[in-house]
Design brief:
Elements: E1 3-14, H1 15-19, H2 23-28, E2 37-42, E3 48-53, H3 61-69, E4 71-79, E5 96-97, E6 101-106, E7 109-110, H4 116-119, H5 121-124, H6 132-145, H7 150-164, E8 167-168, E9 172-177, E10 181-185, H8 192-197, E11 204-209, E12 213-218, E13 229-230, E14 235-239, E15 246-250
Antiparallel strand pairs: 1-4, 1-12, 2-3, 2-4, 5-6, 6-9, 7-8, 9-10, 10-14, 11-12, 11-13, 14-15
Helix pairs in contact: 6-7
Length: about 250
């Protein structure tokens, strides 16, 4: 299972400053979630730019450089723990996407091809890797290409998985577009991961800070204080850079 963190801000800043005090404890999770890292940022020309490597984040000289040199007001960062049987490779590393959007997932579902009919052969042919997570992205992308907004696209793709998959552990994900950052959370309480990790393992929490930032993140390090709010299951958190508007949408 992977870990996710996203942030938006009122003013562009280096990614390291965008995450501020949350960055170091999040990157410490790479000790366990060490099968790859991926960073996506919104760039000034209104597109999305992503960089990823199939290596532990602590070993990533490229990541260290990007944290200091990439300036943005919206970003997502993913630490991968590969599902059993899936190779550690660039093609299977998150985020997935292009210059319009970047998508990162924490969880798994089976069978991997359960969304293929929804995705369609044209988009399916663009898949680089073997993961269920990339299929989740392509199902979201199918819906946005068909005209849905990101909120509805995320909810409908999750509905497809829930109704058709034999099993799933978590559908937690982050989606970054030129307009903003979106977070979705849902897990199956019957998953064996919950029995091993504990009920709160798949929670997503978010907060705003006095210095003009908003952060959403997986669990795994101390997130103390009342400023952190839990994102309700089957809801999308929409985070708008610049205005720092946060909106929770129900399914």
């Amino acid at each position: 299972m992977c870990r996710l963190i996203g942030a938006v801000s009122r003013q562009p800043a280096a990614v390291r400053d965008l995450y501020a005090d949350d960055l170091a404890p999040f990157l410490d999770l790479a000790e366990e979630h060490g099968d790859g890292w991926g960073l996506a940022v919104r760039v000034p020309n209104g597109t999305v730019q992503a960089v990823k490597e199939p290596e532990r984040a602590h070993d990533g000289l490229r990541l260290r450089s990007l944290l200091d040199t990439s300036t943005t007001d919206a970003a997502l960062l993913h630490l991968r723990m590969a599902s059993p049987g899936l190779p550690v490779s660039a093609a299977n590393t998150h985020p997935f996407g292009d210059r319009e959007m970047a998508f990162a997932h924490n969880g798994d579902f089976a069978p991997v091809g359960v969304l293929d009919t929804v995705i369609g052969p044209d988009l399916l042919a663009t898949a680089d890797g073997e993961t269920d997570s990339e299929r989740f992205y392509l199902a979201v992308r199918r819906r946005t290409d068909d005209g849905l907004d990101p909120v509805k696209a995320l909810i409908q793709a999750a509905d497809d998985i829930r109704s058709s998959a034999d099993r799933f552990a978590s559908l937690n994900c982050l989606l970054l577009t030129a307009a903003g950052l979106y977070a979705y959370t849902e897990h199956d309480p019957r998953s064996e991961v919950i029995s091993r990790r504990g009920e709160g393992y798949f929670g997503l929490h978010y907060r705003t800070t006095p210095d003009g930032r908003a952060v959403v993140a997986s669990t795994g390090w101390a997130q103390p204080g009342p400023e952190w709010s839990a994102l309700p299951e089957r809801h999308v958190l929409e985070m708008t850079p610049g205005t720092l508007n946060l909106t929770v949408h129900g399914s």
